[in-house]
Amino acid sequence: MSGERSRAPSKAQQSRHAARELAVQGLYQWQMTGKSITAVEAEFRSQVADEDLEDHENWHKVMEIADLALFHELLHNVADQRRELDAAIAPLLDRRLEDLDPIELAILRLGAYELSRRLEVPYRAVINEGVELAKSFGATDGHKYVNGILDKLASRLRSAEVSARRR
User: Which residues form the signal peptide (predicted)?
Assistant: First the structure.
């Protein structure tokens, strides 16, 4: 026995995670289709009622538990601030922004937004969420890349918090 206890996530944590899952999927759709972010959000919300949707039951469950206010905030603010977020991410990359896997770009933008604007969320939580999202939606080993970039970004954007944690 390692002495560590595994805690189940609280309902609030599950709700925020579901909101981030939806936001990443929405950002991906927005990046790939060029539709307005408002149209993407409307499509996501309308899919709950679409019983013909292949994954209707899962979709309905996620939408039911998701913090929809957080989903809205993340989706719209990441889209609105993408240039600033991209400017923060780009210097940390080993390739051009355009060459990133689109889902990894969506996750990095979301992480950059939370690190720079949602200061009440601990930087480790932002990184962990990014890693989990990359494991769920990204390419094989994409989570390692996301982890490295978000860790570097946290050191730049939240240096005092990172330094205090590493002592």
Answer: none
